[in-house]
Structure formats: C-alpha cells, structure tokens
Amino acid sequence: MPETHTDLLGVLSARLGAKHVIADPAGMESYLLEERKLYRGTALAVVRPGSTEEVAFVVQECAKADVALVPQGGNTGLVGGGVPHKGIVLSLARLDQIREVNPFNATMTVEAGCILKTIQDAASSVDCIFPLSLASEGSCRIGGNISTNAGGVNVLRYGNTRELVLGLEVVLADGRIWNGLKSLRKDNTGYDLKNLFIGSEGTLGIITAAVLKLFPKPKTRVVAFIGCASPHAALDLFEGLRQTMGDELTAFEFMPRFALDIVLRHAPGAVRPLSGDHAAYALIEVASPDPDLDLRELLEKALGAAFENGTIEDATIATSEAQNAALWHLRESLSDVQGLEGGSIKHDVSVPVSDVADFIVTASKVCEEALPGVRVCAFGHFGDGNIHFNLTQPVDMEKAVFLAQWERFNRIVHDIVHAMNGSISAEHGIGLIKRDELARYKDPVALDLMKTLKRALDPQNILNPGKVIALGADLPPALPIGKKG
Description:
- By secondary structure, the protein is of the alpha+beta class.
- The protein has helices at residues 3-16, 25-32, 52-65, 116-124, 142-147, 155-158, 194-197, 231-245, 257-266, 295-308, 321-332, 334-337, 356-370, 399-403, 406-419, 435-441, 444-457; strands at residues 21-22, 45-47, 69-72, 88-91, 98-102, 107-111, 128-129, 165-171, 177-180, 206-213, 215-216, 220-228, 249-256, 280-288, 314-317, 344-345, 348-350, 375-381, 386-392.
C-alpha cells in the first residue's frame, strides 16, 4: 500500500476509531460483493463514520489524498452502483437515527443509514405510512433508496422516491455540508438542488439525511388476484379500474403464467389462487383511509363488469388480512425463486403505460425467436409502465453459455424499448451494468449536461467514479463477473 494511503487510513482511524476503519480482506468481503454476485470490487478500506460531520471529514481527507469514495448503504443495489474500485467504501450504516417524526406536518427526518422497514414502522406508530415498499425493505437503507430514486409496488398511488422527499442533507465532494433539510411543500427560491442528488447514485454528493413525506394510514384494504387471457386484457383491466377506483387503486402488478408457475413450484407456502391456468395475471390492491368505505363492494362491482365484458377470465378477492398477505406472497416471492430456474438475464425498463402490453408481446416474440426455448418472465408494475423483462435460460442450456448472451439480449430488448420512447432503467438505476448502455441510448445533449454537472460538483472525480457516466481513464469494468466483451 502506498505511504500516502497508509497515512490516510491512519488519519481516518484517529478520527473515527480504529474499529470503524476496516482494511482486512475478511472484514471487507461483504462490502465488496454486489447483491446478485455479478460484481466483486476492490478497496483500500471500508470506513464507517457515525455522523454527518465525520462523513464530511472522510470526504475532505480523501479529496486531499486524491482517493475515490464509494458511498454504500445496505448494499442491496442491482446494477453494481455500490461496488468499489480501488478507493474507500464509505458505509453509512451507522447514520441510522430518526431525527424527527412530525405527524401534523406529515414528515419524518431520517439519517441515510436508516433501514427502510424501520422508517415504515416509525410512520405506522403515528398512524401514518411511508409508502416506499421494496422486496429488500428489511435490509436496504434510505440513503441508497434516494440515491437510486427507488420505485417499488406503490408508485402508482404515491410516486417514486423523488416524489417522497422534501429535503436533503448532502456532503459535497470538497467536504462541505449542504443543509437542505426543509419540510416545505412549496419553496420557489431558485434551483431545486435536492433533485440533482436524488437518483445520482452518489456521483454528485453523499446524502446523509432526508425529510420524507408521510401519508394517512389506510384503514381498509382489499387485494385481488385476477386471471386474464393476455397482457392486453390486463392493460384493459387496469384502465377500467383506474377509471372506477381512482386513487383507491394503490397497486397493479402483472405476472405471466411462467412467473406464477415457478412461484408455486418453489416458494414456501405459495397456494394456487385460481382453479385454472391463464396466460396473464394481475395482482391489485385498493386501499383507503376511510374505514367506512366498502372497498370490497366497489371492487366486486368493477370486476363483475370486467368479467361480463370479457376483460377477465377469473378472479379471487381476499376476505381477510391473512388472505391479502397470501396473495401478495405470490408476487413478492417471484424475485427470489427466479434463480432456482437457472440463469436470468434481467432488464428493468419502462415504456408509456399505453404501450406496456405491446412491449411485452413484441419483446417476448423477438427474444423467443432469437433463442428458442428461452423462458420470458416479464412482470412488474403495470400501472406505471415499469416491466422487469427477465429472461430465464432454456432448460437444456448451460447457465454460463446463456449468461454470455447478456449483451446480445440487451441490444434486442433495449432497442425495442428505445423505439417505444421508453427508458432502459425504470427504478434500479444505471450503476455499472447499464453505464455503457446509457451512452448508447441517452440523448447526446442530456449526456453532455450530465457530464458538465459531474465535473462542476466533483472536479476530482472522487465520488463513485465510473458509475452512471464514464469519466476519466481508470474506470471499473462495466461487464459483470464471467461476462466477455
């Protein structure tokens, strides 16, 4: 290790405490390997500051030593955005305090290391909800959610993370602290700086705290599972429910038959929701803070009309919270069981809601023609146009041979998305895995503006370098482990 790096670690240890500067390989291992094990990074050390001021100190010292920093929360990202490349991993796990809960103002001020589930529980304790909901909510941390502009199952009703944040506290690349922790719904005093950092994946600044929006807790909710003849029929169902249920429609999740089949095959406790098989399924939730509103009656009426006009083939409506949970279990288990069917080439894309069924049908057909036997698992958040268009390896193909075609299928799927004026990243971010794809599909003027912002806010390129956009000569490789260029 160069002497300057040894000196840096000594300075950091003196301020943070030696136990919070981890340099041994065993201690660093969990910080270096990405959630899906597609990337393994390298680092000088992992540092664990315990306050915003300590984060600022670490950034200042790394800037002096010209050493890169990779901010990391729960390390649950899916695009390699938290994977280090030679520099320092800056773990925000110790910044885990809820600073204030204000139910009257419907806000909560939290530190970046707070686990999402902890925030949800704190909101619930004051009869509110924080509606961001993800499969990893028991381990992901809010700073990472904000830095990737996370989505989840409730975007239809409440919006992405960007819509849930009122203010931020951010440590800049030179170590200064920007205090933008305002809980205002209106603040028209110049540029909206917080939105520079939301979704920037730690490349422009390090989020250390945030003011979040809270919402009234639903007093009643009803979940239904519906069988349809096609993605187009499911889209027709969505449009009908949006018109009849309005804001009470909080979630509309789509699953193809293959997805339900593998959940029933592999997920513990999964129970077949409908007696027959259908080409497409929708899981929907309606909810209201009004305990006297008979949501079940309204939903039964809407689904009855959909059955009469041929939009749906079958449906079941939960009659208890236990049944609500059982139906959600079918959707929430899907991400976990996909790997049990072999290799999976994943795409997190979005298209206009009106085109989502066309996209699924078109992309499925093209991919199946490109590789006979490939099993399409296209599921996701129908109501906001976000589809996880995943491809499961053919039964008779070796996993490594299949995964070696990742780039080929990126081109197929992303070209279709681009032709539909969609996005190659809906809610997971860019990170490493889509960095080069972004350069291919993003508007050149937009890319130039992004690079200009990066150079202005991080002139040394020390904040998560090589992620989102490629600047500088020493870049981490974008291809995952085992993939060939």
